[in-house]
Amino acid sequence: MTAVLTKNSRMRLSHRLVLVTFFTFVISGCWLIWEADVTDRPGASPVDKALEDLSRIEYPSQKNIRWHPRFIRPHETLESLYGNDWVWVARFNRVDRRHVYPGMTIKEPDRMNDIKNYTPLPKEYAAAKRYPKYILLDKTEQWIGAYQRGVLKFSMPAATGKAATETPAGIFRIDARHQTHTSSLYKIHGEDGEQYPMDYALRFHIDENNTGFWIHARDLPGRPASHGCIGLFDEEMQERTFGVPAKPVLMDSRRLYEWAVPDSEYGDDYGDLEEIEGGPVLEVRGTLPVYR
Fold first, then answer.
1. What is the mean pLDDT of the chain?
2. Which fold is adopted by the domain 126-291?
3. Is 142 helix (H, G, I), strand (E, B) or coil?
């Protein structure tokens, strides 16, 4: 009797060892699969002090558009990811090609057709109907539009002043144009660099400190970033200043400039600073977008 019990006990012990080994293998395998899945899905730092995760910026107009975060890996660019559709993704994210780099996150649409010809501004705007030309800037959407008698002719993303140096809200008039404007306050590479270029500049406000506020060409990092001015795409300026992109495409600043203050209405433009009368109205509305 004792020998039989001992034999059964040994069998039970061997069974236990087999079961323990089996479940250890299963659990380890699941852990390795889960760990591989996690490491295969990188994302921006949870702290994200550089605000590199553009999927965290909330634009009201994007609530009804299906999109998902896209982490940019080494050697990936907007062109390599989206081909000729990169323009729509850049506009959707309010970002230029120079600011899409490995380690950051953008918003990728589930369906590209959902963001083609995307604009968060109304097709018609009642407040603009009595004006031949009216410019509307929505800070919440980081977007600007050109209206003729209240009808939207075209629109584009913008980079307004950041929290510490917000673009002033209100109703203004374009009172000067300067096709080859440069900043009197800021330089490209610190104190030893050249003055920051602000091509196709339209002045709309001078504050109590005699500081001018302009709509002008600049780089767009996908969020409010300026010292109060309104920046628009200008890849020719970026190529000239920073060497990228190799083939400029987006020229929003020039398009708005030529529409707002054309030579046919204000005389020949020789690139010099020129004060004008009767320029288009500019309305700046809204508050800065929320960053979650």
1. 86
2. L,D-transpeptidase catalytic domain-like (2.40.440)
3. coil
